[in-house]
């Protein structure tokens, strides 16, 4: 009888570390499912290519700039835009302009103008 109890205790002691490890693995897998995805660099899709913001610039959008369109949809910050005039940050209504030197500018609804560059 004592021998059976001893074997039982040894088996339990051998199995406990595996149970703890399995529980830890399940916990970390579940917690990773609920973590937010990392945000990507702000970008827009224009002419089937991705544009990223470089920096704000102090220029006035005037008649020498060509209006190219405006942002009309958005995707979450963790995704890349895939359709023309789509962005991954909240700038619906922002206007896209080009100039004679083929630079692209994004005029945000608050009036801020950003110089954009094609994502490499």
Task: Describe the model.
The chain is 27% helix and 30% strand. The protein contains 1 helix and 8 strands; from the N terminus they run αββββββββ. The mean pLDDT is 83.
In short:
The protein is of the alpha+beta class and 120 residues long.
Would you spell out the secondary-structure blueprint of this structure?
Blueprint: H1 2-33, E1 43-46, E2 49-57, E3 66-70, E4 73-74, E5 86-87, E6 95-98, E7 104-107, E8 113-118
Parallel strand pairs: 4-5
Antiparallel strand pairs: 1-2, 1-5, 2-8, 3-6, 6-7, 7-8
Mean pLDDT across all amino acids: 83
Helix count, DSSP H or I runs of 4 or more residues: 1
Uncertain spans, ≥5 residues at pLDDT below 50? none
- Shape descriptor reads rod-shaped
Helix content: 25-40%
Largest sheet: 8 strands, mixed
Rg calc = 27 Å
Amino-to-carboxy terminus distance: 74 Å
- Order of H and E elements: HEEEEEEEE
* Record field, number of beta strands: 8
């Amino acid at each position: 009888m004592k021998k059976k109890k001893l074997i039982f205790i040894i088996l339990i002691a051998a199995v406990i570390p595996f149970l703890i490890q399995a529980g830890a693995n399940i916990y970390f897998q579940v917690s990773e499912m609920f973590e937010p995805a990392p945000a990507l660099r702000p970008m827009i899709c224009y002419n089937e290519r991705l544009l990223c913001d470089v920096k704000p610039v102090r220029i006035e959008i005037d008649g020498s700039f060509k209006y190219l369109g405006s942002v009309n949809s958005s995707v979450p910050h963790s995704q890349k835009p895939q359709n023309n005039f789509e962005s991954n940050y909240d700038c619906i209504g922002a206007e896209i302009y080009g100039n004679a030197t083929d630079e692209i500018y994004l005029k945000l609804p608050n009036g801020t103008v950003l110089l954009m560059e094609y994502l490499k």
